[in-house]
Design goal:
Elements lengths: L2 E5 L2 H7 L6 E3 L4 H13 L4 E10 L9 E2 L3 E4 L2 E4 L2 H6 L7 E4 L7 H11 L3 E3 L2 H10 L4 E7 L9 H5 L9 H10 L4 H26 L18
Parallel strand pairs: 1-2, 1-3, 3-9, 5-7, 7-8
Antiparallel strand pairs: 3-8, 4-9, 5-6
Length: 227
């Protein structure tokens, strides 16, 4: 099996590349994630992983909580994750991930989505990864860390700060803070939550990088990345 990893952001890609498998960046959109997953399949990947940050829907999940989802819901479709890949990622946590086409920013939006789907968390990549994996008859799994909790609202400029490659455009952030300084406390809180989530992912990746790949019948990973 040759795994391909789909992320939304360049910061997530830097962590995921430590696993040694090809990584493709969706740029923080569902369409971009779909294209990234398709590109990895076209390049010969026989399994897919959705990796990175997620928004919390379950109020019990705090920033930095790791999720190895048992199922992904995208629209009216339900996709079960692969048990072997999930076990390799640290073991399934029995959480359901919601794959969304748009960022779910507000507390009320998160509560409604939780009520409608029963999902514990939401992101923009997992639905696309699940869809592409199903179309191509490939196994897939999800490893995500909670960033913004169910009780937090993303500040508007946190949503506008990304460029098309999923990198933070600092000039946009500084311009926005200058124009709307009331956002600064929320942006600082979000930065702290994102840091906790990235630390959790890095810790899990460090453990996985030392685990023997043969446990899943995986060959030694190639030491190169797909951008």
């Amino acid at each position: 099996m040759r795994l391909g990893i789909v992320v939304g952001l360049t910061a997530e890609a830097r962590i995921a590349r430590r696993l040694g498998w090809p990584v493709a960046i969706g740029g923080g959109t569902a369409d971009g994630a779909n294209a990234a997953a398709e590109a990895l399949v076209d390049q010969g990947c026989t399994g897919l992983i959705s990796f990175g940050l997620a928004g919390g829907l379950d109020p019990m999940l705090r920033p930095g909580t790791l999720i190895v989802a048992s199922e992904v819901i995208a629209g009216d479709k339900h996709y079960g994750t692969d048990p072997d890949l999930s076990r390799w990622l640290g073991g399934p946590t029995a959480h359901v991930m919601c794959g969304s086409d748009a960022i779910v920013a507000g507390v009320d939006e998160k509560r409604r989505l939780r009520e409608q789907t029963g999902a514990a968390a939401v992101d923009l990549e997992s639905g696309a990864v699940a869809h592409v994996a199903a179309l191509n008859h490939k196994p897939f799994a999800v490893l995500r860390a909670i960033c913004d909790s169910a009780a937090s609202t993303l500040p508007p400029q946190a949503l506008a700060a990304l460029d098309t490659r999923g990198a933070v455009a600092l000039c946009r952030v500084f311009t926005s803070i200058a124009a709307h300084p009331w956002q600064l406390p929320a942006l600082l809180a979000l930065a702290g939550d994102a840091s906790a989530a990235r630390r959790a992912l890095l810790g899990r990746v460090s453990s996985l990088a030392q685990a023997p790949a043969w446990q899943l019948g995986l060959p030694a990973p190639p030491r190169r990345s797909v951008r």
